[in-house]
Write a structure and sequence with these properties.
alpha/beta, two-stranded parallel sheet, 12 strands, Rossmann fold, six-stranded parallel beta sheet, binds NADP nicotinamide-adenine-dinucleotide phosphate
Length: about 260
């Protein structure tokens, strides 16, 4: 099958591309230097010429210089892409995030829990979900939690960087939504086989960030010093009976509580 993938060079895009090419699927990356993300006619012409079987929309405005640039990438591009996929009848997945839920909302979030984040990245992704659905009711939207694996934009890289600045303070009162990148990649592709709807990918069945960070340190044999705090408190877990993924315990073991 031929997939057009946006954001293909990013953290999730790299994992998805490896997964798809490993199955002998063809990946055509949306090259933003050549194909506009703002001019509708150019987008539709690209999709018409490339004739993908499926489109996977991962890109988001990492490091945008302004809110206007971020809005154009995260919201307006989705709006136009949705219309192009609807017009050309191409099945597509729009990738979203658990951060559509505001920090004061507590999970486990179901796919019918109304998200409330209004600002910043999560607010733009929430608006993008609404636009995608309004423009194309056949969209599949897949929300992800914090990714774990290789690349810049994922939990292990954050911990690695944080460890260079002294002990890592990790909340023992926060249950983050998260999953390993290869698990996520397989789930995103599996979503195409499911009916158009909203799906959520989360491997955390009940571990706190402190526990996950310690388990990851042990798994990677990283010498991180990790201290528990309770500064951030939220049950951010997402549940979805339709797009189930393996729990963290399939890869990680909980280390004993330090005595
Ligand atoms: N990583 C996570 O932990 C995580 C968690 C929850 C949800 N997600 C979602 O997963 C998707 C992929 O995230 P990621 O972690 O792979 O992000 P990433 O590593 O930052 O990659 C994002 C990609 O988007 C493209 N991009 C960057 N700036 C852009 C701009 N201004 N306008 C348009 N495109 C731009 C780039 O790809 P090209 O240069 O190839 O176009 C970039 O590599 C996003 O929709 C994000 O919301 C990620």
């Amino acid at each position: 099958m031929r997939y057009v993938v946006t954001g293909a060079s990013g953290t999730v895009g790299t994992a998805v591309t490896a997964y798809l090419t490993g199955r002998s699927d063809e990946v055509v990356a949306w090259n933003r230097a050549r194909v506009s993300t703002r001019r509708y006619a150019e987008m539709e012409a690209f999709l018409r010429t490339t004739a993908p079987d499926r489109v996977l929309h991962l890109a988001f405005a990492a490091n945008a210089g302004s809110e206007a640039e971020a809005w154009a990438a995260d919201v307006e591009w989705v709006h136009e892409l949705a219309w192009a996929c609807r017009t050309l009848r191409i099945p597509w997945v729009h990738v979203s995030t658990v951060l559509v839920f505001a920090p004061w909302q507590n999970g486990p979030f179901r796919s019918d829990t109304i998200p409330a984040e209004a600002d910043g990245y999560g607010g733009r992704k929430r608006e993008a979900e609404a636009r995608a659905r309004a423009q194309d009711p056949n969209v599949r939207i897949v929300r992800l939690g914090w990714q774990i694996g290789q690349g810049c934009n994922q939990m292990a890289a954050w911990l690695e960087e944080r460890a260079t600045r002294g002990p890592i303070r990790a909340s023992d009162a926060w249950l983050p939504a998260c999953s390993f990148l290869d698990v996520t990649a397989a789930a995103l592709v599996r979503a195409f086989e499911l009916p158009p709807a909203l799906y959520q990918v989360d491997s955390n069945t009940g571990w706190t960030f402190y526990q996950i960070a310690r388990a990851l340190a042990e798994h990677r044999k990283a010498g991180w010093t990790i201290e528990a705090d309770a500064e951030f408190q939220q049950d951010q877990r997402m549940v979805d009976p339709w797009l189930e993924v393996p729990p963290l315990s399939e890869r990680l073991s909980l280390p004993p509580v330090p005595g």
